[in-house]
Amino acid sequence: MNLTAVNQSDVCQEYWCPERSVSLSVYVILYVAAAAVSLLTVCGNLLVIISVSHFKQLHTPANILILSLAVCDLLVGVFVMPFHLSWLIESCWISGSVMCSVFNFVTFQATSVSVHTVALIAVDRFLALSSPFLYSEKISPTVICIAALFNWLFSLFYNFTLLYVNGNFADVTCPGECLYIVDEVSSLIDLIVVFLMPCTLIIILYTHVFVIAKKHATAIRALQVHNRMESSKNRVRDKSERKAALALGILVIVFLLCLLPYYIFSLTNFLKDDSLSNVINSVLILFYLNSSINPLIYALLYPWFKKSVKIILTLKVLNTDSSLMNVLSLSS
């Protein structure tokens, strides 16, 4: 899904790392900025993971999917972002062949899991708004946990097969570069499985979600006065579902905006032009930065995340029965 794709016929070409072309002060600033972004990504997503895992009130289907996405973003912050940013700063891969293999595999895995998790979020919100009674009866945290686990296992099998079939575990080392081998058929399959199918599903379902939310809001305003008491209950429940759909909709839209630039290059066959490899690697930064942006979105849109972070940072999370604390009291 990323980096420099090559054909098996020209796996390694002669490559020399260019000498550093920036001053020492700029060089240090670039590395400090890279470390700060990576640290922000790791810490932010760790707080999301701890919050959803620890507090029982947050064990809802939608939050389970947020947890799965946060784990992907954590992997990006630990195994992908630092090495990719270092590669861009040095204009050369300096981390060795073993880390190159780990880097490639984790990148493929995190990408496919995150895209399919966002697709599951779209399915979850569509079912919650279109069939609320069916959703409350059939869609439990356990069901979503199984779906998320299947997503991870499918991606693990899919990415291992994709890389193995193309000979990426043959320990081919290219000094100064971190390549993965992929043929045109595999590239097309990956484009369909990881981008076209899930993103089409996301766009279609979220279009329906916002249409349904608008219809619900119109219906609530049209309720009769003599049903005011019951309408109040319906209004609270429906407002909650629409608010969740809006918050997750923002998450989905930001995700697609970060993902699209890279795949626009793919769809227009720009990836076959080696002269654009630096541009492509730069475009990938935007996608990786989505892993840093997601916790900020949670902080802005979810009162429960703000409260749970406060509890974690003040170490109240270590108290007995802290998992039973009310972290939803600030929710409107």
From TrEMBL:
<dbReference type="InterPro" id="IPR050569">
    <property type="entry name" value="TAAR"/>
</dbReference>
<dbReference type="GO" id="GO:0001594">
    <property type="term" value="F:trace-amine receptor activity"/>
</dbReference>
<protein>
    <submittedName>
        <fullName>Trace amine-associated receptor 13c-like</fullName>
    </submittedName>
</protein>
<feature type="transmembrane region" description="Helical">
    <location>
        <begin position="244"/>
        <end position="265"/>
    </location>
</feature>
<keyword id="KW-0325">Glycoprotein</keyword>
<feature type="transmembrane region" description="Helical">
    <location>
        <begin position="64"/>
        <end position="85"/>
    </location>
</feature>
<keyword id="KW-0807">Transducer</keyword>
<dbReference type="InterPro" id="IPR017452">
    <property type="entry name" value="GPCR_Rhodpsn_7TM"/>
</dbReference>
<keyword id="KW-1015">Disulfide bond</keyword>
<feature type="domain" description="G-protein coupled receptors family 1 profile">
    <location>
        <begin position="44"/>
        <end position="298"/>
    </location>
</feature>
<feature type="transmembrane region" description="Helical">
    <location>
        <begin position="191"/>
        <end position="213"/>
    </location>
</feature>
<keyword id="KW-0297">G-protein coupled receptor</keyword>
<feature type="transmembrane region" description="Helical">
    <location>
        <begin position="105"/>
        <end position="127"/>
    </location>
</feature>
<feature type="transmembrane region" description="Helical">
    <location>
        <begin position="139"/>
        <end position="158"/>
    </location>
</feature>
<keyword id="KW-1003">Cell membrane</keyword>
<dbReference type="GO" id="GO:0005886">
    <property type="term" value="C:plasma membrane"/>
</dbReference>
<keyword id="KW-0812">Transmembrane</keyword>
<feature type="transmembrane region" description="Helical">
    <location>
        <begin position="285"/>
        <end position="305"/>
    </location>
</feature>
<comment type="similarity">
    <text>Belongs to the G-protein coupled receptor 1 family.</text>
</comment>
<keyword id="KW-0675">Receptor</keyword>
<dbReference type="Pfam" id="PF00001">
    <property type="entry name" value="7tm_1"/>
</dbReference>
<feature type="transmembrane region" description="Helical">
    <location>
        <begin position="28"/>
        <end position="52"/>
    </location>
</feature>
<keyword id="KW-1133">Transmembrane helix</keyword>
<dbReference type="InterPro" id="IPR000276">
    <property type="entry name" value="GPCR_Rhodpsn"/>
</dbReference>
<keyword id="KW-0472">Membrane</keyword>
